[in-house]
Amino acid sequence: MSSKDEHYDYLYKKSKSTIGVEFATKSIITEGKVIKAQIWDTAGQERYRAITSAYYRGAVGALLVYDISKRSSFENVERWLKELRDHADPNIVVLLVGNKSDLRNLRTVTQEEACAFSEREGMACMEASALNSSNVDEAFHRILSEIYTLRSERQLTANQHDLNKTTLPLGTQGVRVDPIRIDLNSKGSKKRSCC
Predict the structure, then answer these.
(1) Residue 163 lies in a domain
(2) Per-residue model confidence as pLDDT tens digits over 31-44
(3) What is the dihedral of CA 187, 190, 191, 192, to 10 degrees?
């Protein structure tokens, strides 16, 4: 290997691509709670597209990952995002991740371009490197924290909604109950006799 670029190329060629779908779990702590996520790597390769769309159902978050050194992978993000939105929950949290940030000198997609796209699409963006692990944990922590926050807010809203609505069985009336007051300063009560 004569140059740094060839070294990176060699390392990436030696790494294994996802075949079909792979599964892992990841746990993080946010707001003092352990959040355990099931992670499905659905392989961005066209030949696996038919089997991967089934994994979108029930997903609450997605990392859309593209290669900053391959323009074609960034150009495919729009199609993957559409497919994700067609098959997943409409409230899914999406984070756009530019992978291979360690290959800055081979970059074909600027961070500004990627973040402008993600902003238009209503998602966050960041860059990471799977090779040297920079920002990988941060990407997972960021999306899982956002999912946790949104889910917590929705649960609070739902609970408040349930408290605000009162339902009584048909044909019944509500009963008003006045509060009971206890006077602790009273020196005693007058005794009444019945006779």
Answers:
(1) no
(2) 888 878 777 766 55
(3) -160
